[in-house]
């Protein structure tokens, strides 16, 4: 007889490789789906290829210390033959030798070292979101093997069965088996923590790592997962089934690489779902003379014995006890959770007392609950488990059911401590409930978090209401989070604090719901709302932030109105509404009310925050005077009462405002002073009103430098601004979109079309992911300008027509003005000068009603171009427009606009024989440039000068 295979050996036969160290069967380079029992049988046969291995030897090898019927062996042999293709195309691997056993008959090549092929992972490192697989599972090997095959072939499988049947255990085990298929991209989402189905999307987004990106939006989640290959395990769907149904149907339809395992007590009944019914464990037959060995052949009894030992029961199953244990298992319908809960009490009550409890209590409860579908068995089991607890344990268990998600011991003490239970007693009782498997524990490093199982929480919540304690516990729960969040400020959360609070956002929302309910206490809600809004803002839950700002402001008592608390709420409302709701009236009202209160209190911190908001908000409109006034007042307060950070921010805001109003020389000075002071004081980022102002300043300065005739320096700063925006931990969605949207024109102006196209693609994708409609529309408008620059006027016009209604509706003038000008140019190119005239005249009218705009020279240039295209008779007016554009560009210190108008007017004069005037005009403007001679406008100017017989000179040098 051959020796057993060494730990590092591998075998080859036919197209297969059996790699023992990894317990892996490969066909070519592809893993073969095969259960662990079948694989053990294969190893036992292959290592003794050519010999007959008896059935008894195989059973002893694969099922040590367990009595198993030969039928189980035959089932696994049949499955193994199917996996190998035994009997197909003449292949023959396993022969049945009647009366003796089985023999591996194929030729086997044996190697001393495993030859794991490239691309097959040597180990499986599972992500932290996936719970640890049970070291020993009973009676589920074939189920897991089948489930894995269904998931791979069908993509979407719902494991359906009554509560306590082991759906989660099976789903987790299958996910572990499939780890290599998904390169460890497996996300486990415990939906049992949710009391509100509206939280399903955010729970899934959190598990896959994109919570701040989705902001509770299903379309954004679907877009995020559209091209990701992951296995998503959605556990305990039944209480939020409608929401999960919508989510999973969307994922199946729009995310073709996402595979789903769901567990539920009922089917989801949606497209793509494949139902896998999960049955309870087999129980022993009802025989009075059942022996221990016969009872242990039943998976239900084996599970009971295993869990009893884990719970401290130190006695082997005897023949005398076997019928009693078998009876317990039958009465519990072989339900794994019921068996585990019962067995864990064996050390306390003993087997016979447990049987009496089951017979006298649990079964009566089952009969009493038959009118409640789906819950009868589980409710009865949990009622029985609840009845086994002491009065103090019941009280604490019911109290802890208030937590929507996980909780710490500190949180448990805060909510459960009362005159009947001091803090130390709460700790002891929590530990007792952990021991009794009613509370689960998760550890990350030295930190531990606690959680009630889903069905336990639901059951305990009912009991809490029956005890009449629900409102008292909800009050303590809300007070705890109000105290926990007290003092939080917008932009005042570091990454560690943010992560700590974000984990409990479900509890925060639940506490807010209770506080503002009829049974709640709005005074707690006011304190909680004030503390919660900075958290909602920091994780980009803008709609949620706006909702609770409005509720909290509406509930403010008279004595709180006009305080710093109201100012913070008005600021949070302005930020969330500005970015997510686009209600300009609401934003303006919140900013004005907040600033008025801050002024009356002399609160410089809030004055600066709100003035920064007015500066950012004012950039949406045609009148650039408002953001400039806000920036000037901000600068005044910053110089008087602010620090280095505020003084730097003031210079950046002044730079942005001077740029928009059209004073590029002052804009450059302010920006550069800000950068210099930031470097000297070690100031990096400044956050306010949802933006990172360093990135905003870098991009704004880049635009200013292009206008000033420094296109190479402009490109360098634009790249730096995009990089800074991408590094920011908070407000990243707005900062990145702002950086992209403001940076693209720099590259379009330079003629760097490929760079511009790449950034536009990123802008549109990012804005779509975060549902930032105005930035998405800005991206479409910029793509329209890009298409025009590439010569595709028809596509450019179509894109601009799509973008403009959104930009105009949301009053995003800084984007809509450029898009309208580009649309007028495009219409002129295709011969629609009449419509182009209407559009350009309307833009100019808007601009002239305001305090001026940096775009005015370019708008006037475009109007001249449109006029001449409409009719040659318009030559005098068109020429006057170009001269006006040149004059205004010089007054704005905008050499970039001046060159564009000079190029056009020089060409017109050349066409009319005025060569000397054309040459002199263009040469003078061209000579004032010191860099950027490879950019589009300067190359065009150089060609035109050569056509006029002039040698282009740079900065006065020939």
UniProtKB/TrEMBL annotation:
SMART domains xrefs: AAA, Trans_reg_C
DNA-binding region: 8-106
Keyword set includes DNA-binding: yes
Domain OmpR/PhoB-type, residue spans: 8-106
Origin species: Bradyrhizobium centrolobii
Single GO biological process annotation from the record: phosphorelay signal transduction system
Domain of life: Bacteria
Signal peptide: none
PANTHER family linked to this entry: HTH-TYPE TRANSCRIPTIONAL REGULATOR RV0890C-RELATED, REGULATOR-RELATED
Keyword terms of this UniProt record: DNA-binding
Name used for this protein in its record: OmpR/PhoB-type domain-containing protein
GO function terms (MF aspect): ADP binding; DNA binding
């Amino acid at each position: 007889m051959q020796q057993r295979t060494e730990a590092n050996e591998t075998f080859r036969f036919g197209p297969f490789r059996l790699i023992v160290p990894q317990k892996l069967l490969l066909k070519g380079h592809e893993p073969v789906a095969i259960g662990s029992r079948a694989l053990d049988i294969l190893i036992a046969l292959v290592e003794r290829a050519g010999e007959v291995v008896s059935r008894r030897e195989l059973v002893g090898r694969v099922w040590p210390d367990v009595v198993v019927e030969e039928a189980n062996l035959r089932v696994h042999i049949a499955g193994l033959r199917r996996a190998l293709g035994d009997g197909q195309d003449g292949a023959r691997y396993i022969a049945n030798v009647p009366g003796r056993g089985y023999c591996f008959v194929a030729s086997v090549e044996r190697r001393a070292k495993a030859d794991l092929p490239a691309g097959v992972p040597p180990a499986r490192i599972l992500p932290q979101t996936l719970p640890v697989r049970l070291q020993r599972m009973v009676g589920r090997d074939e189920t897991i093997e089948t489930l894995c095959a269904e998931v791979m072939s069908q993509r979407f499988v719902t494991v359906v069965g009554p509560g306590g049947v082991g759906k989660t255990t099976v789903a987790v085990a299958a996910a572990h088996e499939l780890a290599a298929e998904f390169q460890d991209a497996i996300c486990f989402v415990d939906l049992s923590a949710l009391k509100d189905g509206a939280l399903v999307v955010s729970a899934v987004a959190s598990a896959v790592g994109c919570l701040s990106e989705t902001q509770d939006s299903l379309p954004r989640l679907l877009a995020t997962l559209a091209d990701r290959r992951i296995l998503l395990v959605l556990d305990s769907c039944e209480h939020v089934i409608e929401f999960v149904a919508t989510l999973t149907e969307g994922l199946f339809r729009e995310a073709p690489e996402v595979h789903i395992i769901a567990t539920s007590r009922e089917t989801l009944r949606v497209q793509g779902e494949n139902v896998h019914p999960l049955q309870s464990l087999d129980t022993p037959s009802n025989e009075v003379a059942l022996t221990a060995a016969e009872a242990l052949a039943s998976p239900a009894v084996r599970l009971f014995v295993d869990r009893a030992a884990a719970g401290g029961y130190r006695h082997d199953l005897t023949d005398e006890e076997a019928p009693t244990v078998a009876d317990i298992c039958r009465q519990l319908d072989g339900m794994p959770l019921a068996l585990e809960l019962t067995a864990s009490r064996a050390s306390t009550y003993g087997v016979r007392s447990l049987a009496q409890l089951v017979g006298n209590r649990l079964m009566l409860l089952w009969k009493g609950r038959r009118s409640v579908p789906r819950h009868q068995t589980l409710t009865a089991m949990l009622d029985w488990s609840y009845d086994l607890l002491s009065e103090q344990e019941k009280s604490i268990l019911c109290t802890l059911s208030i937590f929507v998600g996980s909780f710490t011991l500190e949180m448990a003490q805060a909510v459960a401590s009362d005159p009947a239970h001091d803090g130390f007693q709460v700790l002891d009782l929590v530990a007792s409930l952990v021991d009794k498997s009613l509370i689960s524990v998760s550890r990350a490093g030295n930190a531990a978090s606690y959680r009630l199982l889903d069905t336990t929480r639901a059951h305990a919540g009912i009991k809490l209401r029956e005890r009449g304690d629900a409102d008292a516990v909800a009050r303590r729960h809300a007070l705890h989070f109000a105290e926990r969040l007290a003092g939080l400020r917008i932009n005042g959360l570091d990454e560690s604090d943010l992560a700590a609070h974000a984990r409990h956002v479900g509890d925060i929302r639940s506490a807010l719901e209770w506080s503002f309910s009829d049974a709640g206490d709005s005074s707690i809600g006011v304190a909680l709302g004030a503390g919660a809004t900075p958290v909602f803002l920091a994780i980009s839950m803008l709609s949620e932030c706006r909702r609770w700002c409005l509720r909290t402001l509406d509930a403010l008592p008279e004595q709180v109105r006009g305080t710093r608390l109201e100012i913070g709420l008005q600021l949070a409302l302005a930020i969330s509404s500005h970015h997510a709701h686009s209600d300009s009236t609401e934003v303006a009202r919140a900013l004005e009310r907040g600033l008025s209160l801050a002024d009356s209190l002399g609160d410089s911190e809030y004055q600066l925050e709100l003035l920064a908001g007015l500066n950012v908000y004012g950039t949406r409109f045609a009148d650039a005077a408002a953001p400039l006034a806000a920036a000037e007042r901000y600068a005044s307060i910053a110089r008087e009462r602010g620090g280095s950070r505020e003084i730097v921010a003031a210079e950046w805001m002044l730079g942005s405002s001077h740029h928009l109003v059209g004073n590029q020389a002052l804009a450059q000075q302010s920006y550069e002073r800000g950068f210099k002071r930031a470097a000297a004081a070690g100031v990096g980022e400044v956050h306010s009103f949802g933006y990172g102002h360093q990135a905003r300043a870098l991009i704004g300065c880049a635009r200013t430098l292009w206008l000033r005739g420094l296109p190479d320096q402009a490109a360098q700063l634009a790249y730096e601004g995009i990089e800074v925006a991408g590094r920011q931990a908070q407000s990243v969605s707005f900062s990145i979109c702002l950086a992209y949207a403001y940076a693209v024109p720099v590259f379009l102006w330079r003629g760097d079309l490929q760079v511009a196209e790449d950034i536009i693609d990123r802008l549109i994708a990012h804005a779509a992911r975060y549902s930032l409609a105005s930035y998405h529309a800005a991206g479409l408008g910029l793509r329209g300008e890009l298409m025009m620059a590439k010569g595709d006027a028809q596509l450019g016009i179509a894109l601009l027509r799509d973008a403009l209604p959104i930009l105009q509706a949301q009053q995003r003038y800084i984007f809509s003005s450029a898009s309208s000008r580009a649309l007028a140019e495009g219409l002129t190119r295709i011969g629609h000068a009449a419509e182009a005239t209407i559009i350009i005249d309307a833009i100019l009218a808007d601009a002239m009603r305001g305090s001026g705009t940096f775009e005015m020279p370019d708008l006037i240039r475009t109007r001249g171009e449109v006029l001449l295209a409409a009719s040659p008779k318009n030559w005098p007016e068109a020429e006057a427009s170009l001269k006006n554009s040149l004059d205004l560009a010089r007054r704005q210190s905008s050499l970039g606009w001046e060159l564009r108008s000079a190029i056009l007017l020089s060409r017109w004069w050349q066409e009319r024989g005025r060569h000397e005037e054309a040459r002199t005009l263009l040469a003078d403007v061209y000579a004032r440039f010191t860099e950027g001679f490879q950019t589009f406008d300067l190359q065009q100017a150089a060609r035109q000068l050569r056509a006029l017989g002039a040698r282009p000179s740079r900065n006065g040098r020939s």
